[in-house]
Design goal:
By secondary structure, this protein is mainly alpha-helical. The chain is 54% helix and 5% strand. The chain folds into 2 domains: 17-204 and 252-389, no CATH class; 397-528, STAS domain (Transcription Regulator spoIIAA), CATH 3.30.750.24. It has helices at residues 36-61, 66-70, 74-82, 94-105, 117-139, 151-168, 170-174, 189-197, 205-223, 230-245, 273-278, 280-304, 311-326, 343-352, 354-369, 372-392, 436-447, 468-483, 495-503, 506-510, 519-528; strands at 397-401, 407-410, 422-426, 455-459, 487-491, 515-516.
């Protein structure tokens, strides 16, 4: 969730000791009195929008409804003290709530049911475990891990979670029984959904009418009356209708009595180290989602409001927030912009990068069909595969010149030359084990022709690194060109790349005199030869 606050950028001083990891009130200081009125409005608006949401998230988490409100008490204060983002607000979240629910349900503990004190204790334990992992991530400066999940797969993952949550709520919207967790197993999302559809004949007309009215209200205000929070209107309206027409008497299930008072503080009771170990995979999954979602949200608002954003700084606030959640009888919290399925972003991905759209869709399908944790693993794997794929097939080209002397890039078709007797080959990315063979094949294809060139110039302006495989491949190419009596020259290599070529023995094979600072210098040397 994000607060519509309008404050400006904060300042951070360099600290020492603990101050290197924690900066108190970093997202608030400095503060001007003129901001107070706007921030009060922002706070009231946030509460109006967030309170109905966190009540729903408690249902997704399988915890008592009051615990949803608890996520907006101590955790949000803890983040305000220890966090750094002015716009990131932590609280209950659908994605982490769904992951936590699946993890606790998979324990297979006899008599364990959602809504019980034992379930809540395990939920609080999962929040504490997330806090420990977030603290480790902060100390180890692992905020950069958020960059290893692309926006494409993150959209797909969150879409899958949204669909999963929506499918799980169908029974409640129709007023029909939904399958519950059984000892030793959990029904998959699809199986649960199908089981719910089998009971559709028992649909409560009054419940369905309320559900459709709420959805219509959200759509109406979300599209055409955006100045008024539709969620708040729906909740207030539903309460009024329920009270006036006594919906409970007509078969509509209501929350009933919501306990008042503050949360009970302390370490969750009735949990063991064994259960903590069993929840480790769940906590790691939540850690990844928390880092990815909170970083994406903070970064987006930092760009919008021209603020300084450091991913690692927010980890301290998220650590404190989850520690507060675990010690105040509630579940894991997160800073997230997600509201279920992101159709707009899916459409944009389809329009701009259809290849990545299918990756996003595959991620969503795994989350829905297999599970949230498996979806996270796939999301990370696909992100890395997409990156390697782009590096594996870079835009390699042969540089040519037109009649006016302007450089042009042509495909690396066999036999292509820059001009008679000369081939200038430009490799578009860093050279590493996955694309080294591609480079070797393309170069040999350019040279293995009836009339091979006299000079081969390797334009290295786009290369920022060469690994062992890449270096040995270039050294082998140097030997092959030497056997063919073709001059091997390198142009526009960065100092770091030049040192790497020295270490891999390429320089010793081609000679110091065949390095050129510019392509024009290499071309002039060819003509002078």
């Amino acid at each position: 969730m994000t607060a519509p606050s309008g404050v400006g950028a904060g300042s951070r001083g360099a600290g020492s000791g603990l101050g290197r990891y924690v900066r108190l009130f970093g997202g608030i200081r400095p503060y001007e009195r003129s901001w107070l009125s706007r921030d009060v409005v922002a706070g009231v608006t946030l509460a109006a929008l967030a309170m109905p949401e966190v009540l729903g998230y408690s249902k997704i988490a399988g915890t008592p409804v009051i615990t949803g409100l608890y996520t907006m008490l101590l955790p949000i204060v803890a983040f305000a003290i220890f966090g750094s983002s002015r716009h990131l607000v932590v609280g209950g979240d659908s994605a982490t709530a769904a992951i936590m629910y699946a993890g606790i349900a998979s324990l297979g503990i006899a008599g364990l049911q959602p809504g019980t004190s034992r379930w809540l204790a395990l939920a609080s334990l999962s929040a504490l475990m997330s806090a420990v992992l977030l603290l480790f991530a902060r100390l180890a400066r692992l905020g950069f891990l958020a960059n290893f999940i692309s926006r494409t797969v993150l959209v797909g993952f969150l879409t899958g979670v949204g669909i999963q949550v929506a499918m799980g709520q169908l029974g409640g919207m129709l007023g029909v029984p939904s399958p519950h967790v059984t000892v030793g197993r959990t029904s998959g999302t699809v199986v649960t959904f199908v089981d719910t559809l089998r009971e559709v004949g028992q649909t409560s007309g009054a419940t369905l009418a309320v559900s459709l009215s709420v959805l219509a209200t959200l759509v109406l205000f979300g599209r055409w009356i955006k100045a008024v929070p539709g969620g708040l209107v729906a909740v207030v309206g539903a309460i009024a209708v329920s009270w006036i027409f006594d919906l409970a008497a007509h078969g509509v299930s209501t929350l009933g009595h919501v306990p008042s008072g503050l949360p009970q503080l302390g370490f969750p009771s009735g949990v063991s180290w064994t259960q903590a170990g069993q929840l480790t995979a769940t906590a790691v999954s939540m850690l990844i989602v928390i880092i990815a979602q909170s970083a994406a949200t903070s970064r987006a608002y930092a760009v919008r409001y021209r603020e300084r954003f450091v991913e690692n700084d927010d980890l301290a606030g998220l650590t404190a927030a989850n520690l507060a959640a675990g010690l105040s009888s509630t579940f894991v919290v997160n800073g997230s912009p997600t509201k279920l399925v992101d159709i707009a972003n899916l459409r944009e991905i389809w329009r701009l990068r259809q290849e990545e759209f299918w990756v996003s869709l595959a991620t969503a399908a795994v989350v829905v069909g297999v599970g949230v944790e498996q979806g996270i693993i796939l999301a990370i794997a696909l992100s890395l595969i997409l990156h390697v794929k782009r590096q594996y097939a870079p835009a390699d080209r042969v540089v040519t010149w037109d009649a006016g002397g302007r450089p042009r890039l042509r495909p690396t078709d066999p036999g292509t030359t820059s001009e008679p007797g000369l081939v200038v080959y430009r490799f578009g990315v860093g050279l590493f084990y996955a694309n080294a063979e591609r480079l070797s094949e393309e170069v040999i294809g350019l040279l293995d022709v009836p009339e091979p060139p006299r000079w081969f110039v390797f334009l290295a302006d786009a290369i920022d690194d060469i690994d062992y495989t890449g270096g040995k491949t270039l050294a082998e190419l140097a030997d092959q060109l030497s056997e063919r009596e073709i001059v091997f020259a390198v142009a526009e290599a960065r100092p770091r790349v030049r040192r790497q070529l020295d270490r891999f023995g390429v320089t010793a094979k081609i000679g110091e005199n065949h390095y050129y600072d510019t392509l024009d210098a290499a071309r002039s040397a060819y003509h002078a030869d």
